[in-house]
Design brief:
64 residues; mainly alpha; 3 helices
């Protein structure tokens, strides 16, 4: 699976179903550690983008 496609799929899984990192890793044929690391990078990127636009940043695990 292409990296961009993996990023998109992983993000949608992580956002819609917290705690599904193991299943996501199996589906994408990567380690759970990779899913966790990539999710933290994506969350940091999204946090920075929201902060730069003056938008509220939800706490980890907080539903919007």
């Amino acid at each position: 699976m292409e990296k961009g496609s993996r990023d998109s799929h992983r993000s949608s899984c992580a956002v819609t179903s917290p705690g599904i990192h193991r299943e996501t890793a199996e589906l994408l044929d990567v380690t759970e550690r990779t899913v966790n690391r990539d999710w933290h990078k994506a969350r940091a990127f999204l946090t920075l983008a929201l902060e730069q636009r003056g938008m509220p940043v939800p706490a980890e695990g907080e539903a919007s």
